[in-house]
Amino acid sequence: MKGWNGRILRINLSERKVRTQNIDSEVLLKFIGGRGLAAKILWDELEPGVDPLSPYNKLIIAAGPLTGIVGPSTGKLVVAAKSPLTGGYGDGNIGTMASVHLRKAGYDAIIIEGTSRKPVYIYIEDEAVDIISAEGLWGRDTFETERLLKEIHGKDVGVLLIGPAGENRVRYATIISQEGRSGGRPGLGAVMGSKKLKAIIIRGTKDIPVHDKAELVKTAAQAYSDIKKAPQYDFWMRQGTMATIEWSNENSVLPTTNFREGVFDYYRLIDGYSMEAAKITQRGCPNCNMTCGNVVIDAEGDLSELDYENVAMLGSNIGLGHLGKVAVLNKLADKLGLDTISLGNVLGFAMEASEKKLIDERIEWGDYKKARELVLDIAYRRGIGDLLAEGTKRIAEKIGGNSIEWAMQVKGLEVSAYDCHAAPAMALAYGTSPIGAHHKDAWVISWEVRTGRFDYTREKVEKVIELQRIRGGIFETLVACRLPWIELGLKLEYYMKLFKHATGVSMTLQDYYTIADRVYSLIRAFWVREYKEQWSRKMDYPPMRWFKEPLTKGPLKGAKLDLDKYDQMLSWYYEIRGWDERGIPRKSTLEKLGLNDVAKTLEKYVKLSQ
After folding, report:
1. Which terminus of the chain has fewer Cβ atoms in its 10 Å neighbourhood, N or C?
2. How far apart are CA 128 and CA 110, in angstroms?
3. pTM beyond 0.70, yes or no
4. Per-chain mean pLDDT for the chain
5. Residue 410: left if φ>0, alpha if ψ -120 to 50, beta else—which one?
6. Among the residues of 32-76, which ranges form H helices?
7. What is the per-residue DSSP string for 375-433?
8. What is the pLDDT of residue 184?
9. 214-226 average pLDDT score
10. How many CA atoms lie within 13 A of 283 on its CB side?
11. Looking at the DSSP assignment, which residues form a beta bridge with residue 111?
12. Does residue 253 have a pLDDT over 90?
């Protein structure tokens, strides 16, 4: 088939062996690529109960049939593994030249298994693969390491790498590329670190095989044109996701002081207009004409690339109303290889734990100097940083004091930057995200604010699933960035046309939805296989703070979620997905989705409903 390379590169670091294998065309049609292919590989190849930081975990780097081809924001790939943070399925999406080079090198995915005895990096150039000593790079930050590697291998290569946080197995360490592109929130940088793998460098020199290049180029050109014609394009190019700070504060969803509140008194000091005043350039992913990376000069005179999530989590969530200082913390996180969302959660949690005297350290809200120290301590696991490197769920289990109720996480993954005291649909999106609390799969809160915030309706559940099918299904398997669609209204039909021109395969929207449902049920099966009888519907509950502690300020003062009504939404969610009241896919659902083998395996661990 065209559109896919149809090959996987398998690298065993323990044995220092490299081989390629073909991918069955039926697998590609059923799972497409990216998240779908990664989930399929992890389900097939991982033994249940494997320690995520052991040689037996596998790191998957997976592209899709749109990755790297001409088309809007197609410079994306998915990284996946069993998560050290959650113990379940973990993945992330990263924009990087490595995605383009992976496809041009002739592969759709890389599987990295085993563990090297000493630090190494991998250099891939088409069929040639070398495992090279990285002892001189181990301990260096991501920015310095990438510069050194490009001095050796050329500035045009694609690079995926980790910093000290990944080396020290911080459970929310990420994989970094291009001095600030970051992916793999559930600790995939720690998986690389556990394998003593500092970096992966890829150079591809081949053409990506496509079915109809002329039509592909024509469709892509029209899509690029439509993006630039969008009414909000100019403002997007000015502020990108940073405009969300003002919107979130106006709608009482801006995370403030560890998600106690949804409004921040000093939001103007960290909003999109403050960013514009400090902005000096923009950066984006490959094949993108709506770049979202806004680069500012930070409080230490360095350059830092900002977006909404890192500014909200390292700003309002820790009580820090100074954009330049927020930018320093963000830059430091990128250099060390830390996820900024989980980091902001952990810092906010530590500040609240200090306030409640559950830890000995004195960490005040908005204390920039102390926050900066803690970022370094976390990455190097020094002092209290060793505990904070474990993530909020594990910290709460250690310090007690009912802190698990205000550990802002689901399944161990920290909540991203939307407060849900008055947003039940968004709370459901967090609760049912396939990797733990993340907005990527169903950013339903904008729709919810427009259509009614306080209802607990079946319509809201249907909307969450619709968005999961599109955002977490279509975009994560093709693989392409969702921002042209969600932010500037690029029609979904473009992606279907690009897929057809790339592969020669025609699919309807319902076909894509079925594939998305297949992937979501497979990932849920992975979670259940790991947790076995410990699994329950409570795994899909958002943080208890949103149910028990109402907002105390802002226009929605007094608002909180209703647990009984949330539970009803969760039951509707399971019903629509064909899962039982425990949140486990029914045997009939798995069989309907062509996952008969998954059903047979899962029955060894839990009793399946019909």
Report:
1. C
2. 14
3. yes
4. 97
5. beta
6. 34-45
7. HHHHHTT-TTHHHHTT-HHHHHHHH-TTGGGGS-EETTEEP-S---TT-HHHHHHHHH-
8. 97
9. 97
10. 16
11. 10, 60
12. yes
Domain 7-203 in CATH: superfamily?
Aldehyde ferredoxin oxidoreductase, N-terminal domain (3.60.9.10)
- 266 exposure class (CB count in 10 Å sphere: 0-12, 13-18, 19+): middle
Nearest-angstrom CA–CA distance, 63 and 608: 32
- Measured distance CA(607)–CA(126) in Å, rounded: 46
Q: Which amino acid is at 24?
A: D
pLDDT, tens only, 523-545: 999 999 999 999 999 999 999 99
Give the span between the Cα atoms of 572 and 537, in whole angstroms.
12
Residue 44, number of CB atoms within 10 A of its CB = 11
Asked if 583 and 571 count as a contact pair (C-beta separation under 8 A), the reply is: no
Q: Specify whether the CB–CB gap between 48 and 605 falls below 8 A.
A: yes
For the chain, what are the domain ranges?
7-203
Residue 208, both tokens: 């990506």
Here the tokens at position 89 are 């399925």
Beta bridge partners of 598: none
Residue 63 phi, psi dihedral angles, 5° rounding: -100, 175
Selection from 105, 201, 121 nearest residue 153 by Cα: 201
For the chain, the first-to-last Cα distance in angstroms comes to 36
Q: Are 86 and 435 in contact (CB under 8 A)?
A: yes
Tokens describing residue 482: 């969702």
Residue of 484, 600, 592 lying closest to 227 (CA atoms): 484
Please state, in angstroms and rounded to a whole number, the distance separating the CA atoms of residues 212 and 3: 10
